[in-house]
Specification:
Layout: E1 2-8, E2 14-19, H1 25-46, H2 48-52, E3 57-63, E4 67-73, E5 79-85, H3 93-111, H4 125-137
Antiparallel strand pairs: 1-2, 1-5, 3-4, 4-5
Helix pairs in contact: 3-4
Protein name: Trafficking protein particle complex subunit 2-like protein
Family: Belongs to the TRAPP small subunits family. Sedlin subfamily.
Keywords: Cytoplasm, Endoplasmic reticulum, ER-Golgi transport, Golgi apparatus, Transport
Length: 139
């Protein structure tokens, strides 16, 4: 299951970040921040091909000793970064992909809310509940 989930605007401003356990939150902020360069490199390397795809899963961005960092980009260039514990070998690529799809669907629901101001941090109890349950059970 993910230990940290983050949504980042194209300008690299975080819209949402959630970490479990919360005492490591600063460490995950740093991990997510350093992964943004890798996301940008992957996007520019894919270039034109990325425009034609509906599925914008970037895969494993980089592994560290303790964590694996995965990336996903929406059509509007919002970046999703997920940090997963390296010891979790049961988590397959298609499960990570499905978690990103679930996050993207929930993100879309938030964007469709007429009371949400695009660019504001995401404060939604329903969204928090969905992310928490995903982090606890792994999808």
């Amino acid at each position: 299951a993910p230990v940290s989930v983050c949504f980042v605007l194209p300008q690299n401003y975080p819209l949402y970040i959630r970490s479990v356990p919360t005492e490591n939150e600063l460490k995950f902020h740093y991990t997510v921040h350093t992964s943004l360069d890798v996301v940008d490199e992957k996007i520019s390397a894919m270039g034109k091909a990325l425009v034609d795809q509906r599925e914008l899963y970037l895969g494993l961005l980089y592994p560290t000793e303790d964590y694996k960092v995965y990336g996903y980009v929406t059509n509007s260039k919002v970046k999703f970064v997920m940090v997963v514990d390296s010891s979790n070998t049961a988590l397959r690529d298609n499960e990570i992909r499905s978690m990103f799809r679930k996050l993207h669907n929930s993100y879309t629901d938030i964007m469709c809310n007429p009371f949400y101001n695009p660019g504001d941090r995401i404060h939604s109890r329903a969204f928090d509940t969905m992310v928490n349950s995903m982090m606890m059970q792994g999808c």
